[in-house]
Amino acid sequence: MSGDYFFKDGNIMRNILVTGGTVFVSKYIAEYFAGKNENVYVFNRNRHPGVAGTTLIEGDKTVSFEALNNYRFDLVIAVNIYNKNEMKNLLDGLKYVNDFIFISSSAVYPESTKIPFRETDKTGFNSVWKQYGSDKLEAEKYLTERLPKAYILRPPYLYGKYQNLYREGFVFDCALKQLPFYIPKQGKLKLQFFNVYDLCLFIDTVIDEKPSQHIFNVGNSEPVDINEYAGLCYNVVGSRLNKIYVDEKHNQRDYFPFYDYEYYLDVTQQNLFFKETVSMYDGLKESFEWYRNNQDKVIKRDYFSYIKNHLT
Q: Which residues of 74-106 are buried (b: 16+ CB within 10 A; e: fewer)?
């Protein structure tokens, strides 16, 4: 179904819907497209301040997207859709839409799959991510049945401005307090990241290029190990990293913000269209600049108590 384009200062504006729009990824995406003079709508319960330059459509994704019935969208970006029921509600509520992008997850690949994971690899239950991954996969399958031409993006760990999970923020806190950083497995565990800015750029690329492939792994081409990651976080804060390695008798998630799970994605298909990504240093620097003034917006876990009681 065709969308209606609007003009502002002589430029074409698309009608873009972002589900969510108040927290981390969805907030960043809404801000990015609003900053490009697009006509951006956000759908949420109106519990948090919205992004300047966007239009709120109030509703509860777990109940209904009926409030969308009278709108026509050129692009829908489904960010905070976590299961089949929410996807069904969204698709039932959409009457007019051209392009559709679903931000899924790399958690749809079983951990037993040989790394790096490829888009053509088998999907299924992941015992690390559990229900989260299974639900994302069910949402993917339902979307593909209803909208075969929709695009599905599977990122690894996302990071950057507005990060509300206590990941890089915890490392920043250790650096700000000039504390040693406790690292599992000699720091050899590899992690793969993707900056939210790069995610927005790739969304733009997919919509512009309209590739025949409809499922993409997205992420930085090279993973980083924990030693390098911690060093970068301390560096952007301006502190010296003092590493202390922790033996395996301690549960990694009690003192460290990532699972004891090494995986990374093959992003060859992404790189056919999109090769330059934000450097980890620059991405973490932007994240830190936001974090130091917005710590109250981050869901913090009490890693420090475990460190104090068991590791010092």
A: bbbbbbbbbbbbbbbbbbebbebbbbbbbbbbb
Spatial separation of the C-alpha atoms in residues 173 and 155, rounded to whole Å: 26
Structure tokens at 269: 């298909």
Angle of helix 226-237 relative to helix 168-176, nearest 10 degrees? 50
pLDDT of 61 > 90? The answer is yes
Q: For residue 10, is it left (φ>0), alpha (ψ between -120 and 50) or beta?
A: left
Which residue's entry shows tokens 């049945």? 145
The CA angle 158-163-169, to the nearest 5 degrees, is 105
Strands in the chain per DSSP E: 6-8, 11-13, 15-19, 39-44, 54-58, 72-78, 96-103, 151-154, 157-159, 181-184, 190-191, 193-195, 215-217, 224-225, 243-246
Q: Which residues pair with 244 in a beta bridge?
A: 182
Q: What is the CATH architecture assignment of 168-191+224-259+279-311? A: Alpha-Beta Complex (3.90)
- The first and second tokens of residue 302, run together, are 């009490």
Nearest to 152 by CA among 108, 187, 98: 108
Please give the CATH number for the structural domain made up of 6-159+194-217.
Answer: 3.40.50.720
Handedness of CA 196, 198, 202, 204 (dihedral sign): positive
In 3D, which of 138, 144, 154 has the Cα closest to residue 105? Answer: 154
What type of residue is 22? T
Query: Distance (Å, rounded) from C-alpha 200 to C-alpha 191?
Result: 21
Percent residues over pLDDT 90 in the chain: 92
Closest to 76 in 3D by CA, of 140, 14, 167 = 14
- How, if at all, do strands 224-225 and 190-191 pair? antiparallel
pTM above 0.85, yes or no: yes
The DSSP H or E segment spanning 243 is strand 243-246
Domain ranges of the chain: 6-159+194-217, 168-191+224-259+279-311
244-255 pLDDT per residue, tens: 999 989 999 999
